[in-house]
Amino acid sequence: MHDLVAITALGGTDPRVDTVGGVTCSEVPGVALASVAARMGQKDKTAASLAKLIDAPAPEIGRWAGTTISAYWAGPDQWMVEAPFDTHEELADQVQTATGNSASVTEQTDGWTRFDLNGDSIPAVLELLCQLDLRKMDPGSAARCSIHHIGCFVLCRAPDSFSIYGPRSSAGSLHHAIVTAMRSAL
Amino acid sequence: MIINHPLLGPRDASEFTYLGDASLIDRPDWQAENAAEAFYEYGYVRDNPAGEHQELWYHEAGDRSWLVVTRNTLTHEISKVELARDVARARGRSK
Question: Do A100 and A116 share a domain, yes or no?
Fold first, then answer.
């Protein structure tokens, strides 16, 4: 038998946590992800299946919604579904079963890495990182943007809680960008 | 330069990449009698207007949608931004 040790996107055995000023940046490895793209003419059907799955209306443009399983808007007729990895390792199968032939589902779990920012004055950090209009980012907002030339999703969970998704292969660069901005802004 | 994305609102032009003339949407029928001639014109013959120009832009650092941007090549003024799929469907494309 192989004796493999699970490591996080940043290469540690435990998720990395950095605190600067009043803001904490935490690496969040335990997330299952799947993308959903409605097939041509099947948007309404896909949105209805998605709503049932996340127990909330399918998120509109630039929004996220859900409960244990949640989803955020990724593009026209496209969403990313997220859930705790421990209980939803087979999320993509679950989403495909829920949406049937109306959508194409792709497993995304290890394609992305997530960093959560918690604390006051997160906008001060984010305005150094991305070009999003942060005054318009209220709880429930989700937007794709570029952070240091890395395509990322930024989700506002609460005024003092944001999540950033970036490509796992650029986890180190993204983490460096975030922590540098935190040191600069706070 | 700011591009007013039809879904997401004003976004900086640096989030987008430029492809070219929006006439690229009108891909000829490859099974037509005059396909070779039509593809020659599709591939090589372009208008180069000094004024209003429809062009394809890709929102690479955003929602990854293709847009048709109507831009004045003399003033850089953008008068209209539409989703390319809406433009294509309005021109009778099924996909």
Answer: no
Shortest CA gap B15–chain A (Å): 7
Chain B residues touching residue A154 (CB < 8 angstroms): none
Supply the pLDDT for residue A6. Answer: 87
CB–CB contact B95 A40 (8 Å): yes
| Residue in A76, A131, A151 nearest the CB of B7 | A76
CATH classification of B2-90, choosing from 3.30.460.10, 3.30.2270.10, 3.40.50.300, 3.40.50.2300?
3.30.2270.10
pLDDT of residue B93: 81
Amino acid at A115: F
Distance from CA of A60 to the nearest CA of B (A): 10
DSSP assignment of A109-154 equals GGGEEEEEEESTTHHHHHHHH----GGG--TTBEEEEEETTEEEEE
Nearest alpha-carbon partner for B17 in A149, A75, A76 = A149
Give the pLDDT band of residue B95 (cuts 50, 70, 90).
low
Candidates A127, A130, A145, A150, partner chain B, best to mutate (most B CBs within 10 A): A145
**Residue A167 contacts B, CB cutoff 8 Å:** no
Tell me the domain boundaries of chain B: 2-90
If contacts are CB pairs under 8 Å, which of residues 69-88 in chain A contact chain B? 73-76
> Is the per-residue pLDDT at A2 higher than 90?
no
Which of A110, A138, A163 corresponds to the end of one domain? A110
Distances (CA, A) of A131 to A140, A166, B90: 18, 15, 32
Residue that is last in its domain, among A62, A77, A110: A110
